[in-house]
Amino acid sequence: MIRFIDEHRDQFGVELICRVLRRAVHGFLTSRGYRAAKTRTPSARQLRDDLLIPEVARLHAENYGVYGRRKMHALMRRQGWDIGRDQTERLMRAAGVRGVKKSKRVFTTKSDPKAALPRDLVNRHFAADAPRRLWVADITYVATWSGFAYVAFVTDVFSRRIVGWTVASTLKAEILPLQALDMAAWDAGGDLSGLTHHSDHGSNYMAMVYTDRVVELGAKPSTGTVGDSYDNALAEAINNLYKTELIRQRGPWRTVEQVELATLAYVWWWNNQRLHGELGMRTPLEVEEAYYADLESPQPVPAGQGN
């Protein structure tokens, strides 16, 4: 109410605004109440809000403007602010920011009914006890003014880290998914022994050039059902988040190259800064660093064998 009066007082005057709106809006300020509020010393809560609201707006913008209450609360706590979840929600409303909602999935792959298909080694159990045990791969697309940009991701299930990605103007297996796989393999040192590579039955992933490369690297191929939202659910969820958090937020997109540059920045943010609810509000990088730190730490001394 005070903000509304401040915005219109030069045009209508305080007395007229309060007199007219008190008849239409139950509990609207009187002119005397307005003047008392304007001269009153700001409360501790107001002073804190004045400090936190710009911080909420800044952090929200720095994280692609996609965080909802839960992640903004975790982020504010990580920044050192002693703040509750309900307070975070109130400050987000005051700052005019909100989280984004996921959209429905669109299918981008087609299966070849004549192709011999690897078995499903995952069976919808998307969990791993260490990095480089299980990777999931999938493809999505982005409409641009110059045609479609196709995007392939390879994700490590343990840490949710995107280990390989490619943006191209074609769906050809040797260009789109294969380059994403090669990037992931390079990051892993070129040896994928003991790793399971899971995808759907799309012809991109069942092409000989791709399946031969998976085996050559030492990985075990695994496939779910094409078009099934459960058999490759984790990879499809990442595609959905990518479309929700980046593509629909920052469009329209003009060229494939523009999408590629934006995806480069987004993948870095996803791996290094984005808080993941499935990881206990940690980043993929933090999860992997914690895993390797535990491996390097000395074994605890058994009870009774030390000071």
Q: Would you kindly provide a written description of the structure presented here, covering whatever features stand out?
A:
By secondary structure, this protein is of the alpha/beta class. It contains 12 helices and 5 strands. Strand 1 and strand 2 form a beta hairpin. The longest helix is centred in the N-terminal third of the chain and has 19 residues.
Helix-strand layout with pairing:
Blueprint lengths: L1 H11 L1 H11 L6 H9 L4 H19 L6 H10 L6 H11 L38 E11 L2 E10 L4 E8 L8 H11 L8 E4 L3 H4 L1 H9 L3 E4 L9 H18 L5 H17 L11 H13 L11
Parallel strand pairs: 1-4, 4-5
Antiparallel strand pairs: 1-2, 2-3
Helix pairs in contact: 1-2, 4-6, 5-6
Nearest-angstrom radius of gyration? 26 Å
Number of helices: 12
Report the portion of residues in β strands: 5-15%
Q: Report the major sheet.
A: 5 strands, mixed
The order of strands across the largest sheet is: 3-2-1-4-5
Structural class from helices and strands?
alpha/beta
Short description:
The chain has 307 residues and is an alpha/beta fold. It contains 12 helices and 5 strands. Strands 3-2-1-4-5 form a 5-stranded mixed β-sheet, with helices on both faces.
